[in-house]
Amino acid sequence: MATKKVEEESKKNKNKSVKSNNKNINDKNKNSSKTARTKKSTSKRTASSKTDANVKKTTKKETVKTKEVKEEKKLEMITCPKCGKEYLASLDSCPDCSKKVVVDDEEDELEDFEDYDDEDDLEVTTKKEKKKDKEKDKEEVVVAEKKEVIKKSEKLKKTKNKQNSVTGDNFLEQNADLVNLVKILFVVIAVIIVAYLAIAFINGEFKSKDKDDGDDAEVSGTIQNEKILASSIFSKSDSEYYVLAYNTDDEWADYYSDLYQYYKGMNDENALPLFWVDLNDKFNANIVAAEGEETNCWASNYEELRLKSPTLIRVKDGKNADRYEGEEATSILSNIIKEHSNSED
Description:
The protein is of the alpha+beta class and 345 residues long. The protein has 5 domains: 2-69; 78-115, no CATH class; 121-172; 175-206; 230-344, 3-Layer(aba) Sandwich (Glutaredoxin), CATH 3.40.30.10. Helices cover 58% and strands 9% of the residues. The strands form 2 sheets. Strands 4-3-5-6 form a 4-stranded mixed β-sheet. A two-stranded antiparallel sheet has the order 1-2. α1 crosses α2 (105-115) and α5 packs parallel to α6 (327-344). It is elongated and about 180 Å long.
C-alpha cells in the first residue's frame, strides 16, 4: 500500500512538471513573435528614414549644382544683341546701350526650386489640391441645390396651372346659368340690330340722295332729299325751317312730292329750309291721327302731335310757330314757289 501511494505521488509530480514546461514553452514562443514583430517595424522605420534622408541629400546636391551652374554662368561673357559688345552675365543690362538681359524660363524655375525645400513643396501642393477638392465639392453642392430649386419651381408652376384650369372649369360649371343668360342677351341684341337695319332698308333710309326713285324727282341740278323722322321735327340745327308731313300711300302723294322737289330746286338763299316726314313710316305711326280722331298740329312736342296728310309746320327756335293742314298746306308751298319764279323773271 505504501508503495502504491508513493508511485501515485510521483506520477502527479511528473504531470505538474510537464505542464509547467509546456507553459514556459508557450510563453517563450509568444515573446519571440513579439520581438520579431518589433524588429520588422523598426526595420521598416529605419528604411523609410533612410529613403527620406537619401531624397534630402539628392535635393541638396541638385541645389548645390544649380548654384554652381548659376555662378559659372555669371562669370561668362555675353554679347549684347543691340550694340554687339561683350559684358559679364552677372549684369542685368548692357553698360553701353542699357539693353536688358533676357532671363530664360529654366533659370526662373531653378531659382524657385532653390527657394523651397522638397518637403515644403510637397506640403504646398497637397494643400492646394485639398483646396481645389473642397472648391469642387462646394460647386457640386451649389449646382445640386440649384437643380433642386429649379425642379421645385417647375413643380409649383405645374400645380398652379392645374389649379387655374380647375378653377376656370369650376367657375363655368357653377355659373352656367349666368353664361347662358349672357349668350341669350347677345343673340337678342343682334336680332334687334338686324331687324332695325332691315326695316330702315325697306323704308328707303339707305337710298342714295342723288337717285331718282319716282318720289324725289330731280327738277334743276342735284336736289337733296332731306327726309326726317317725327322725333326730330323740333330738334334740327336750323333756327327756322318748314316740315311737310304726308302719307306716301295717299292718292295725292306724287303731287306733294313734286311740290317738295320744286321747292328744293329753287336754290334760293332767302328761302327757309324744307324737310319732309313720311306718315306711312312705322317709326312715325305715333303722330298719325286715326280715323275720327281730332288732329293736334299746334303742339311743340312731337309726342303730342296728331297729324293728317298733308300738314305743313313752320318751326322757329325749336317751337311750333305756324301750322297748315290739307289744301292750305299745299297752297302755301305753291305760293312760295310762284313768288320765287316771278322774281327770277
